């Protein structure tokens, strides 16, 4: 009898633990859930008190978390830049930390909710909106106004509007990461194919060039930037101007059907449905593809292949899509400060200094993304590089972020991008026979779920 | 007949070699790529370099705090393995020997398995809060304590099986001859359970060596980063420094490989012997 009771208790305990373990599998959605996850004031106050690490001289100490925007050279340049700031500003010491991209959201989320947020950080495009929804972002309205007043807010126009939520500046535009299409001009010339300017011309060029092991276009599905490039080029995205789900629009259908045609006409590699960016880039660098829609910083790898290859590759101007638009897509990444900072004025001062003095991150650090401040486009590293110059001239002026046509981003975009919905759509279009309408509806339903969970950020 | 046996043996080992090479292909490719320039990694599919270069290794060793990451990982993994080994042995022995006398012990080891179901990600925020308060965040000791705590339950359950396989009568005979319980544990049970002890130490070592998420969240400074976190510095948002990453990965597996080669004779025995009772 006693054994049976123990067994029953054991079974209940086991079932309860399994049920609790499912808590980690929840979507964690909803502003209320996020606010409930924040430990309350007492812990934050204690942590903030502990965080005031003034040195014996009474220095202000700022924790700056930066993302690896470049490899070894970038991190060396960034640390040198921080050192320079510290030397120029006695009384303020900035501690530099590089946060890996893998698990970055967990890193920031845990730090913020445990009251251990940095003072300043850079981050991926939509993260400031999500943290602002948690009440953790320090508004930078006064900083933006200050820079506008003295004429130094020479940001790309789209980037200027991007980081505004509920009328507040949640981050300063830091860098822009445009996407584009590179092509082999020598192969086009050899085959007397004119440089395409429309989707139809691009498809024709690809069909003429595809032959056995050679493909018209190298496409990846894992990150799915190629599909994003064509969606935005056609003037459509996941949402409409009212921030409502819009993945069932005619423009989206047109784009997905175009991609399916690429697959049916065999102008892309058979494994494209599962290709990562590295695999698609490798195909292009091995001379097995003529066009590659990809991230602009792929130019570094093109340069690495030697002068001959570099001279044979050009950047395609944004195509004229079936809808008549010629847009391009870019990521906008910001630099932000946190409410938990003990030194908001110094944090803002550092942000402004970082924006205005970060030339060496490009000249010595080899940073792939572009500065959001247009004044920096006069640097030799941009004017003397044919790809960068072409991007500045032809691509950036017509580039918009994934939240187009919404002028500014909002928290749900973090999940829309993070859930890799474009990747799912691209894999299904290229790798299955599923009707395009079904794919659109499936993805659209997911967008609706995300928008319902996270809202549009408007109070 | 003899020739037939020879051919059979050759065929068998040939097949094994092919299988091993196939399984090891990613590793071989990684080593080969570490001696190629990033340009060559991207523009051909050869396993071995056309142009051999040490540039990637120079980059990793001279321009990054890579050796610091290795040192940190070795310290954390060894500390975890040793502490888990000692603690789990003591706890596992108690469970194995006293479950006949204390009924609760029969279910205790099963509770350890239930603990394994608990998602570690739920503990991240509370752990960070506690560690900040006690001053253990951003430290090797702090992350070691986490790995020790995470590994003890499973290792205790595993080693208790080994101890159960040792006949009680042997220890009773030792105690009749004058050994205390602790002496019979140290002089009889532990030597006979060395395969199991080696297994749990290897398990704890590898777990601590490979773990990424907790190390990334708890430790931020470059001085206390471990290898898995350090390797991420070569992975950019939309690009990867493949040459440096391959070189760093080759260097990263050397300590773990040496440890496993040294302990391998205990691994197979350890994995199976504990399952046999009585």
From TrEMBL, chain A:
The entry's keywords: Cell membrane, Lipoprotein, Membrane, Palmitate, Signal
Region feature Disordered, mapped onto this chain: 26-54
A family per Pfam: SBP_bac_1
Compositionally biased intervals (Basic and acidic residues): 29-54
CDD domains recorded: PBP2_TMBP_like
Coiled-coil intervals: none
Record's keyword annotation contains Signal: yes
InterPro entries, A to Z: Bact_solute-bd_prot1, SBP
Signal peptide: 1-23
PANTHER family linked: ARABINOSE-BINDING PROTEIN-RELATED, POLYGALACTURONAN_RHAMNOGALACTURONAN-BINDING PROTEIN YTCQ
Protein name: Carbohydrate ABC transporter substrate-binding protein (CUT1 family)
Organism of provenance: Murimonas intestini
TrEMBL record, chain B:
Keyword Cell membrane: yes
Keywords: Cell membrane, Membrane, Transmembrane, Transmembrane helix, Transport
Biological processes per GO annotation: transmembrane transport
Domain of life: Bacteria
Membrane topology: Multi-pass membrane protein
Family of this protein: Belongs to the binding-protein-dependent transport system permease family.
Name used for this protein in its record: Carbohydrate ABC transporter membrane protein 2 (CUT1 family)
């Amino acid at each position: 009898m006693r054994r049976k009771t123990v067994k029953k208790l054991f079974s209940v305990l086991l079932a309860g633990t399994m049920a609790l373990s499912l808590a980690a599998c929840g979507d964690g959605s909803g502003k209320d859930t996020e606010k409930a996850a924040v430990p309350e004031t007492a812990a934050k106050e204690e942590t903030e008190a502990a965080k005031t690490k003034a040195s014996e001289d009474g220095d202000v100490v700022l924790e700056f978390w930066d993302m690896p925007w470049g490899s070894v050279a970038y991190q060396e340049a960034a640390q040198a830049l921080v050192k320079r700031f510290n030397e120029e500003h006695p009384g303020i010491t900035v501690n530099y930390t590089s946060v890996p991209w893998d698990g970055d959201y967990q890193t920031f989320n845990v730090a913020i909710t445990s009251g251990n947020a940095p003072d300043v950080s850079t981050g991926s495009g939509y993260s400031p909106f999500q943290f602002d929804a948690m009440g953790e972002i320090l508004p930078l309205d006064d900083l933006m106004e200050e820079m506008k007043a003295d004429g130094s807010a020479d940001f790309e126009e789209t980037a200027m509007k991007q980081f505004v939520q509920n009328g507040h500046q949640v981050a300063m535009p830091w860098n822009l990461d445009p996407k584009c299409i590179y092509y082999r001009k020598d192969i086009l010339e050899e085959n007397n194919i004119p440089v395409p300017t429309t989707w139809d011309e691009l498809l024709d060029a690809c069909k003429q060039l595809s032959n056995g092991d050679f493909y018209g276009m190298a496409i990846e599905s894992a990150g799915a930037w190629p599909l994003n490039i064509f969606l935005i080029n056609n003037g459509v995205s996941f949402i409409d101007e009212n921030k409502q789900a819009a993945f069932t629009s005619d423009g989206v259908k047109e784009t997905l059907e175009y991609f399916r045609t690429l697959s049916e006409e065999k102008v892309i590699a058979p494994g494209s449905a599962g290709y990562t960016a590295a695999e698609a880039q490798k195909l292009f660098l091995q001379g097995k593809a003529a066009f590659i829609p990809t991230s602009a910083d792929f130019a570094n790898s093109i340069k690495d292949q030697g002068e001959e290859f570099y001279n044979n590759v050009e950047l395609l101007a944004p195509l004229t899509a079936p809808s008549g638009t010629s847009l391009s897509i870019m990521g906008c990444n910001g630099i932000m400060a946190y409410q938990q900072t003990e030194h908001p004025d110094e944090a803002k001062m550092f942000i402004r200094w970082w924006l205005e003095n970060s030339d060496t991150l490009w000249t010595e650090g080899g940073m792939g993304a572009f500065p959001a401040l247009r004044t920096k486009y006069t640097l030799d590293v941009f004017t003397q590089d044919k790809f960068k110059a072409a991007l500045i001239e032809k691509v950036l002026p017509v580039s918009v972020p994934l939240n187009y046509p919404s002028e500014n981003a909002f928290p749900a975009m973090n999940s829309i991008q993070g859930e890799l919905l474009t990747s799912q759509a691209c894999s299904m279009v290229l790798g299955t026979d599923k009707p395009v309408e079904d794919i659109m509806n499936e993805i659209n339903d997911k967008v609706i779920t995300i928008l319902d969970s996270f809202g549009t950020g408007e109070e | 007949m003899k020739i037939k046996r020879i051919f059979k043996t050759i065929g068998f080992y040939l097949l094994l070699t092919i299988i091993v090479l196939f399984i090891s292909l990613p590793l071989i490719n990684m080593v080969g790529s570490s001696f190629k320039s990033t340009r060559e990694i991207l523009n051909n599919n050869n396993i071995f370099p056309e142009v051999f270069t040490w540039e990637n290794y120079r980059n990793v060793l001279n321009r990054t705090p890579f050796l610091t990451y290795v040192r940190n990982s070795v310290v954390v993994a060894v500390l975890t393995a040793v502490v888990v080994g000692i603690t789990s042995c003591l706890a596992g022995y108690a469970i194995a020997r006293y479950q006949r006398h204390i009924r609760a012990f029969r279910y205790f080891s099963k509770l350890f398995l239930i603990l394994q179901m608990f998602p570690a990600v739920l503990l991240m925020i509370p752990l960070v809060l506690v560690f900040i308060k006690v001053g253990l965040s951003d430290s090797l000791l702090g992350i070691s304590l986490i790995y020790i705590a995470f590994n003890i339950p499973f290792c205790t359950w595993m080693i208790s099986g080994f101890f159960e396989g040792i006949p009680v009568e042997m220890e009773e005979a030792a105690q009749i001859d004058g050994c205390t319980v602790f002496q019979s544990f140290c002089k009889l049970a532990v030597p006979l359970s060395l395969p199991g002890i080696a297994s749990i130490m290897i398990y704890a070592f590898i777990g601590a060596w490979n773990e990424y998420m907790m190390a990334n969240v708890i430790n931020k400074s470059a001085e206390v980063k471990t290898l898995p976190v350090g390797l991420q510095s070569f992975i950019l948002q939309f690009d990867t420094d493949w040459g440096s990453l391959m070189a760093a990965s080759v260097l990263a597996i050397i300590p773990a490989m040496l440890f496993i080669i040294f302990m391998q004779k205990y691994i197979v025995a350890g994995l199976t012997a504990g399952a046999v009772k009585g």
